[in-house]
Amino acid sequence: MTSHPKLRVAMVGVGGFGGYRRERMRETGLFELVAAYDINPRALADAERTDGAKPAASYEALLDTPGIEAMIISTGGKFHAEQALRAMDRGLHVFVEKPLCSTTDEALALLAKQRETGLVVGMGHNDHAS
What we know:
The protein is an alpha/beta fold.
């Protein structure tokens, strides 16, 4: 079996549902959470302790993390479009929790940026109950 390198990701919003997303990423074994930012210092400390994510002092600092390939966005919906656009401007692939954005204009801006950059942009929220 061939081993594939883990995707080096940064994440904004690591508490709440972000904590759930981090668990799912760990289960896959496909991601290395390199750095994280959250306004909640306890959530940020948990991401560092549990996932080894280097805490960033701001979203801008998170975007400046060397060597990351993608941004996982698990913040409030009103922040999603701006955060995704800024990540794509840095050449990062993006995964955004739902909702993708808040307005039609934001959706059109995200679509235009994806077409311009060719980056992979995913949106989702998976929650399976047995």
